[in-house]
Amino acid sequence: MLTGMQKVRVHNISMSVDGFMAGPDQSLENPLGVGGESLHDWVFATRSGRHMIGQEGGDTGLDEDFFVAGVTGIGATVIGRNMFGPIRGPWTGDWNGWWGDEPPYHHPVFVLTHQARAPLEMAGGTTFHFVTDGPEAALQQALAAAGGEDVRIGGGASTIRQYLRRALIDELHVAIAPVLLGTGERLFADKTEMSGYSCTRLVSSPAAAHMVFTRQA
Amino acid sequence: MLTGMQKVRVHNISMSVDGFMAGPDQSLENPLGVGGESLHDWVFATRSGRHMIGQEGGDTGLDEDFFVAGVTGIGATVIGRNMFGPIRGPWTGDWNGWWGDEPPYHHPVFVLTHQARAPLEMAGGTTFHFVTDGPEAALQQALAAAGGEDVRIGGGASTIRQYLRRALIDELHVAIAPVLLGTGERLFADKTEMSGYSCTRLVSSPAAAHMVFTRQA
């Protein structure tokens, strides 16, 4: 794939110390699964993480720096359908994502789905595009739409793993939270998906251990 | 259990980022399982870790401090049979542990086993005691033999989990190495075993993320 200097990046993936990206029983009430919120405590303690949910205050420092890196220099995002919403099968009703009228992306977002749907333009610069012809096509469209900036693969676990499997991700940042979920969706369920990657950075705050894995040339 | 001021501690448990304490196919040639050695790179980069295996040099700093904490103030150790050796069933031959004539314990070591065996005195102060009446009995004996110092639960995963399940561990230090093993023995296979514990320290070197879990009163 010709990506020029554009990178495909994964950021701020919170994982429990027992390896889960989300708790069990994801639902409208618990989009991150039961107990999944605690994975993200490190985010909502940062200034930018709090700002994202309309709250004041918050810390600067390492966690803030990682959080901000995940929204800097990104011109488009690809997400899986489950990350867009809890609806399965054909689109019904007027579900417009988890994020209200003004989603925090502010750029084109490509949603992997088997169900066609017209693009959905939201306030603040976010337009959701529904891509039915697979992950490579979605990434191509995202790279083209990113205005020369990088593309972020937003998640969830199965979406990230689809791209890892194809070696299409350049950089993967995981934040390990010191909590246990017991069950849920694993990010690292198949070692071979990570075989081309090495850890190039490992640092911690008291709230999360940050690991950056980079694809080796 | 009356432990007075003595603590029951777990230290320097290396875990892969996908959650395994040892690789698959543990054997005489691969006591840590295939690929398991890489979990311990952080240990063998430290001064004390290198000294333990008869090598010079090595780094001081955070990893060294954690490694040394695991051998400081410990008067006795409890280990599972698999950590003592690869033999299953009745004792045969003259297997005296993985560590040669002078094991690095230098204190009494209680080996959990179903097969009785006379105590085995090694050079340098280590005596292996083979305990056939269960983990509580082994811990009682270790606490009594520790001369007022703490007891370390040495491993492997199933032994640590037996004690976690009984809430008999006061402090658990896990070092997460940024490598994947893909399969093997999981430390955190059951969330309920850790339900009484909180992470009280999280720090990283470039080689490992160190988490300390402490039992809450």
Model description:
- The structure is a homodimer of 217-residue chains.
- The first copy, chain A, is α/β, with parallel strands linked by helices.
- Chain A has one domain (8-19, 33-87, 101-215): Dihydrofolate Reductase, subunit A (3-Layer(aba) Sandwich).
- In chain A, 19% of the residues lie in helices and 28% in strands.
- Chain A has a 9-stranded mixed beta sheet with strand order 5-6-4-3-7-1-8-11-10, sandwiched between helices. The first copy, chain A, has a two-stranded antiparallel sheet with strand order 2-9.
- The A-B interface holds A 17-19, 174, 176, 178-183, 186, 188-192, 194, 199, 201-211, 213 and B 17-19, 174, 176, 178-183, 186, 188-192, 194, 199, 201-211, 213.
Concise overview:
Chain A is of the alpha/beta class. Chain A has a single domain (8-19, 33-87, 101-215), classed as Dihydrofolate Reductase, subunit A (3-Layer(aba) Sandwich), CATH 3.40.430. Helices cover 19% and strands 28% of the residues of chain A.
